[in-house]
Amino acid sequence: MKTSWGKFKCPFISLFFSGCFLFLTSGCGLDQVYYILAPTRTYNVPENTSFFSEAYFEFETNEKKDFEDFVYSGTEIYYKIYSRYNDDLASTDLTSQRSSIYSVSTSDNDANAATKMIETYGYKPLYVCTPSAENPDDKKFDKIEPCIIPHTSENKRVHIRLTDYQNLDEYSARVYYTTNEGKTHYIGSEKSFPCRYSSSNTFNFGRKGVRDAKPEKDNGESDLSYTDFDSGAENTFYVALYAVLSGRDISYVTYHSNVLYLGCVPINANVEDN
After folding, report:
1. What is the pTM of this model?
2. For residue 36, what pLDDT is reported?
3. For a surface tag, which of 89, 194, 237, 249 has the fewest beta carbons within 10 Å of its beta carbon?
4. pLDDT tens, 63-121?
């Protein structure tokens, strides 16, 4: 993943655009640099909450117009599952890795945080699965796609709920965004739900559905950091989410913005309404 350097150009030009900084150097040996401004505004950041009414993520995208030689790909959502929320003696828990990600977030190279999140700590892109209309309870899907908020040069308010609660429609697992005109658009469809990167399973850990298997430490699951469970929280997993804006230049080199921490929700695989 290339996060900050592109092709070289000359002679010297220095341009600043809202949302994208472009520096062209006269040395003809240095590369062109793009800085992408990350989303920064959040509306609901759950942090290990036990209230299902609060267990959702909500933020606003930060969208600007494309340029002749640079195109925004959209706002991507990354996640990771942890068996421990906080452990002062380890570096594999959620809070330790969150601090480490932000420790490399600087104005000199905002993409460092995205690089550390993805390459060092193995955060995976969140996916959205659309069940088969003919057999919705089967494990086959009509469509599986990355959860990417499309870039349209207009900010959007994004709502993400990972787990179904109380069998109520308003608390259903889904991803959607609202435009400035008040229109709601679902990622996938209204029946689609967030699913895991490798297995396409849901986040309804431990329930009875064919897609509801809980994470297992011996299955080699790449989206799981397992170091036993927190004391008194057996079979409780913690899922952390980040948002990051991405784009590419005319050479199809991918660039990432700084990251926006969206929060963390606990999911108890021992209970039905987890």
Report:
1. 0.86
2. 86
3. 89
4. 988 887 889 999 999 999 998 888 765 677 899 999 999 888 776 667 899 999 999 99
Q: Tell me what the pLDDT averaged over the chain comes to.
A: 83
Beta strands 70-82 and 224-225 are: parallel
Of 82, 112, 103, 49, the C-alpha closest to 226 is: 82
pLDDT value at residue 19:
41
- Determine the Cα–Cα distance for residues 60 and 19; give it in Å rounded to an integer: 15
C-alpha of 213 from chain center: 21
- State the Cα–Cα distance between residues 192 and 86, nearest whole angstrom: 32
- For the four alpha carbons of 185, 187, 188 and 189, in that order, the dihedral sign comes to negative
How far is residue 108's CA from residue 35's CA, in Å, rounded to a whole number?
Answer: 9
In the predicted structure, residue 16 carries a pLDDT above the cut 60: no
CA distance 175 to 191: 10
CA atoms of 166 and 41, how far apart (whole Å): 29
Structure tokens at 60: 């606003």
CA distance 16 to 202: 43
What is the side-by-side order of every strand in the sheet holding 127-131? Answer: 141-146, 127-131, 193-195
Among 177, 174, 193, 194, smallest CA distance to 185 is for 177
- Taking Cα atoms as reference points, which of 89, 127, 101 lies closest to residue 38? 101
Q: Contact at 8 Å (CB) between 57 and 44?
A: yes
Rounded CA separation 274/270 (Å): 8
Alpha carbon distance 251, 7 (integer Å)? 8
Within 8 A by CB and 6+ apart from 45, the residues are 57, 261, 262, 263
What is the 3-state secondary structure of 26-57?
A: CCCCCCCEEEECCCCEEEECCECCCCHHHCCE
* Token pair for 104: 């490399």
